[in-house]
Fold:
Amino acid sequence: MLRHMKAVTLHLDESVYAEFQSLARKSKRTASDLIREAMQIYRDRCKKNTHSLAEVPPPASVGAVFKPFTTREDMLEDYFDRA
Structure:
């Protein structure tokens, strides 16, 4: 299958690009290959982090039974005991 590539111009700090070039030489690849791979990894990670609300688990407190406060002192004690 033939893949069509889109040319993109990036502006990087010289030190960042130098690191990509060094890593590319060590792995016998091109800096463009490494940058393209990094972009794909970022894209895939972003896709994994997108959920519909139906897929997001409810907070642990949902369905928990809480003891109601009977006095103002109970409420203040509970409020100030939480750090």
